[in-house]
UniProtKB/TrEMBL annotation:
It comes from the Eukaryota. Residues 215-280 form the GHMP kinase C-terminal domain. The keyword Nucleotide-binding applies. Residues 307-317 have a biased composition (Low complexity). Residues 305-326 are annotated as: Disordered. Its EC number is 2.7.1.148. The keyword Chaperone does not apply. Keywords: ATP-binding, Kinase, Nucleotide-binding, Transferase. It comes from Brassica campestris. One of its GO terms (biological process) is terpenoid biosynthetic process. Belongs to the GHMP kinase family. IspE subfamily. GO terms for molecular function: 4-(cytidine 5'-diphospho)-2-C-methyl-D-erythritol kinase activity; ATP binding. This is 4-(cytidine 5'-diphospho)-2-C-methyl-D-erythritol kinase.
Length: 326
């Protein structure tokens, strides 16, 4: 498979009934350096807001008013870090975080995942969890779903591996339809139900053709088709302007510039360096920038930086510290 040079990413958010965006103005910039082999295409997920979508096609409208989606998902190396340790409590988990505004009770997907694990396995173990949040909330990168998958995996490790990863993957769909993706090898061609959307114009490109092209030739602008860009840009013109400015300022440095999912993240592949205007223009002073790589994982291991064993397990301390990649 062809390799892809580094990308850049940016995100903008606004309130809308059609898109899961926020009123803040974070812009994320990543730069994946290598598109690794697509090791798994068997996962089926219903929603689209995970790490980055290399492409996203609307393939049809369902009788229930939702749309069928086809998308190539890929994990990237931007993520939160979660620490797990066994708690002496026999009745509840305790979750803490480094940022305000994040629920630490049963509304949080981490707690939901741990409750689900106990329900399915009969385990009576509870946990102390600390979430060190690095990913902006509302960027549409699937941080909550990734954290839930990580919690299921960690709970299973700290219970001695009671069940298989396939069982964890199957259970995870009960609390979030995009969570099963994270139990793939890090890349998956996913199909399923999308949110209720009003779409006036979509691409006629066959998603399987896009998949074949990216497998054979790597990522390019013609492959990164996203049918949600047009309606998202109508809701938030500043997001469209950001994409246009990244393309113009890149002067051909980027192999592709595109919106991931329903927003509000703009991805630039081809260079690790953000355009100068993001640093200089007052409009983008609250932009969040980050370089990242595409990532995969081995069976029975969680996502970790290739250069270091940053995910560690200690049976004596019953503790896990996991860099939770998106």
């Amino acid at each position: 498979m062809a390799t892809a040079s580094p990308p850049l990413i940016s995100s903008l958010n606004s309130t809308s009934t059609s898109f899961r965006t926020r009123t803040s103005l974070p812009t994320c910039s990543f730069s994946p350096k290598l598109l690794r082999p697509l090791a798994s295409f068997s996962v089926k997920a219903s929603r689209k807001q995970v790490e980055i979508n290399v492409f996203l096609r609307i393939t049809g409208k369902r009788e229930d008013g939702f749309h069928d989606l086809a998308s190539l998902f890929h994990v990237i190396s931007l993520g939160d870090t979660i620490k797990f340790s066994l708690s002496p409590s026999k009745s509840k988990d305790r979750l803490s975080t480094n940022v305000s505004g994040v629920p630490v009770d049963a509304r949080n997907l981490i707690i939901k995942a741990l409750n689900l694990y106990r329900k399915k396995t009969g385990s009576n173990k509870f946990f102390w969890i600390h979430l060190d949040k690095k990913v902006p909330t509302g960027a549409g990168l699937g941080g909550g779903s990734s954290n839930a998958a990580t919690a299921l995996w960690a709970a299973n490790q700290l219970n001695g591996g009671l069940v298989s990863e396939k069982e964890l993957q199957d259970w995870s769909s009960e609390i979030g339809s995009d969570i099963p993706f994270f139990f793939s090898h890090g890349a998956a061609y996913c199909t399923g139900r999308g949110e209720r959307l009003r779409l006036d114009q979509t691409s006629n490109v066959d998603p399987l053709t896009l998949l074949e092209n990216v497998t054979n030739n790597g990522v390019s602008q013609s492959i990164c088709v996203n049918d949600l860009e047009l309606p998202a840009f109508q809701v938030l013109p500043s997001l469209k302007r950001l994409k246009q400015r990244v393309i113009a300022s890149g002067r051909g440095e980027y192999d592709a510039v595109f919106m991931s999912g329903s927003g509000s993240t703009i991805v630039g592949i081809g260079s690790p360096d953000p355009p100068q205007f993001i640093y200089d223009d007052e409009e983008y002073k609250k932009v969040f920038l980050s370089e990242a790589n595409f990532m995969t994982r081995e069976a029975n291991e969680w996502y970790k930086e290739p250069a270091s064993a940053s995910a560690t397990t200690s049976s004596s301390e019953s503790r896990l510290e996991i860099p939770n990649e998106m």
